Amino acid sequence: MAAVTPYTCGLDAAADVIGGKWKPRILWALHHGPRRFGELRKEVSGVTEKMLIQQLRELESRDIVHREVFHQVPPKVEYSLTTLGESLNVALAPLDQWGADHLTEIEATRPC
Amino acid sequence: MAAVTPYTCGLDAAADVIGGKWKPRILWALHHGPRRFGELRKEVSGVTEKMLIQQLRELESRDIVHREVFHQVPPKVEYSLTTLGESLNVALAPLDQWGADHLTEIEATRPC
DNA sequence: TCAGGTACTCACCAAAAGGTAAGTAAGGAG
DNA sequence: CTCCTTACTTACCTTTTGGTGAGTACCTGA
């Protein structure tokens, strides 16, 4: 019998979902409520439009974020967390806390 | 005033530590106690020697895992979690749980 | 003398991820 | 008729990450 899942544990699966340079920051930004594309671009500083869209699309296809288009000119698109996305953020909270708690150590051992 | 930290939140810092294709699985394998290099190679199925060492070295430099050499022939090296590593694993537990809980959805929306 | 077992180490290559810069669409304002 | 805003989209390039396969060091036991 071959493995039914490509993942070896839940952590493995979760890592697949939040993997990518900008996803944690996007998730964190959306934690405070729906955001427009342009707002996210500002809040997630350093991200380019291409990367932001790419990551949002991936999160959308994973049903982590919801995309709502308002048919206006100029266009308006709002991104928000789905129920699944909110539960993911809840699971992410302890990790965020860990990172905050050990920020000094983490920075001290940062490569380069 | 420039930012003092390269990280924008704890999650960002944590992601930097656990980033890499094999780190979550290595961490999970070490959760059950110290492991020799050869044991990890078997438990983390699919990993090559080069990648395993590389990731272990990174975790070691971040003070997440401890490396202990036994001066024998043939050589024996044991890897185990440090206190920091254990606390990281604790923070990772909810994420693992989330992944396990939503395995079906995650698989269903997997690209390719 | 030589194979065996363990933990690496290295040179080289392939693939994936990320970055840059320019362009598109749509309609309202001037 | 042109500019403005917003949210993308595309082509192309660079960087990072991961993979392959071979080689090394060490002592032991046959």
From TrEMBL, chains A, B:
Q: Give the matching InterPro entries.
A: HTH_HxlR (IPR002577), WH-like_DNA-bd_sf (IPR036388), WH_DNA-bd_sf (IPR036390)
Keywords, sorted A to Z: DNA-binding, Transcription, Transcription regulation
One Pfam family this chain carries? HxlR
SUPFAM superfamilies (alphabetical)? Winged helix' DNA-binding domain
**HTH hxlR-type domain: residues covered:** 9-107
UniProt name for this protein: Helix-turn-helix domain-containing protein
Task: Give the species this sequence originates from.
Answer: Kribbella sancticallisti
The taxonomy runs:
Bacteria, Bacillati, Actinomycetota, Actinomycetes, Propionibacteriales
